[in-house]
Amino acid sequence: MKLPTSSLRFLLLALAWIWSTAAQAQEPLPGASVDSLLDYARAHNPEYAAMRLEADAASERVTPTGALPDPRFRVELRDITKFGEQNPTLAPDRVGSTRYLLMQDVPWFGKRDLKRGIAELEAEGAKGRAMGSWTDLSARIKSAYAQLYYLHRNEQLAREILDLMTRLEKIAQVRYAGGLSAQQDVIRAQVEQTGMRAELIALENEHHHLQVRMNALLARPPGAPLAEPGQLRPVPAPAQLDYSALEERVRARNPLLFTEGARIKSAEKSRELAYKNRYPDFTFGVSPIQYQNAIEEWELMVELNLPLQQDSRRAQERESETMLSAARARAEATANQVIAELSENLAGIEAARRTEMLTVSSLLPQAELTFRAALAGYENGKIDFATLLDAQRQIRQAKLSRIKAQVEVQLRLAEIERLLGEDL
């Protein structure tokens, strides 16, 4: 049986709508990895988009800046009354004569090239600022992701400790029922659980704040859901974190240094242009003269400005020299600051790595052994409940110390990549 054409069309539209709805529902939420967040921000963040558009606009200024000015055209109607023989008229063929003048301004040799070069360097500086905007944005996203991961793991650990305290409360109740311990042990276990629940509320609140901050970076609604952070990015090998190699890469790739370098070159060309202003600019013109209905005469003209205002020009030259010195000083200060931050973050990574290694190899195993011994001792009546709680807190602190060290490495890596202007 054949369906009518209208029914078939309706069925196809319904199937297409169902398919698109299912595809949107299956689209994964950003947040499971740093890469998913960066991809989303690259496509949707308005601040980065604005910087890229400004860089594009700056590149479009190069052509008009180096072009000749538009020519000018003038019409002069001479003797519109023909020595009083006729009423005034504006008809070119009825006046005494009509002079047409076409003029073109031409700067002194080399000025156009210098202006074009300055515009090109300003466009490069705009590109550097756009690149710096992205590196700053990506560093903030990477840092926020690491903090979200820390809160997620801290919440998991807090729930594990809460479950452990529930089991310890049951042990304390059994011992209290058997007359082997005081009721205070049960109460202390309950107090610890209440404290853990209050801490979980604080962690959930902090998690909400971080999620709002992340959504702001992604240009999403504040309450938009994010996927749970899966895992941290792999840490580069020590050879990739060599200070000398990274310093060389930073000096070559850092967006701030790139922008300051373009600013220095622009200031140098501006200085050259200021000295070029000692020489005059020209205006050339050609002028046909019309008598009645025929062109009877041709004139050529040349005009130039006289650069006689020496005080003004010397002040402009001194200004350009000072601006060049200021650009060089600013670039040097920026380089010193960037290199200092690089050294600081590399030292922070090394300290965090050593802390994690010490925690994993020594502190955490010792804390676990202490807790097992304390639990066995409490069950046998050899130690009190306070000692058992202290052993439990040591385990939690050791695990938190490990997570903090891992997150600290991620935060430092994000800063190093911000300085590099690229991923490691």
Tell me the series of helices and strands, N- to C-terminal.
HHHHEEHHHHEEHH
Helix percent reads: 55-70%
| CATH fold group | Outer membrane efflux proteins (OEP)
Based on CA atoms alone, the radius of gyration comes out at: 38 Å
Q: Name the CATH class.
A: Mainly Alpha
Mean pLDDT across residues? 86
Weakly predicted, low-confidence segments = 20-25
CATH architecture: Up-down Bundle
Give a description of the structure:
The chain has helices at 5-26, 34-44, 46-60, 62-66, 111-177, 183-218, 243-253, 255-276, 310-379, 385-420, and strands at residues 72-78, 97-106, 282-291, 294-304. It is elongated, with a radius of gyration of 38 Å. Helix 2 (34-44) packs across helix 5 (111-177), helix 5 runs antiparallel to helix 8 (255-276) and helix 7 (243-253) packs across helix 9. The protein has a single domain, classed as Outer membrane efflux proteins (OEP) (Up-down Bundle), CATH 1.20.1600.10. A hairpin with a 2-residue loop joins strand 3 and strand 4. 25% of the residues are buried. Strands 1-2-3-4 form a four-stranded antiparallel β-sheet, with no helix packed on it. The protein is an alpha+beta fold and 424 residues long. It is built from ten helices and four strands, in the order ααααββααααββαα.
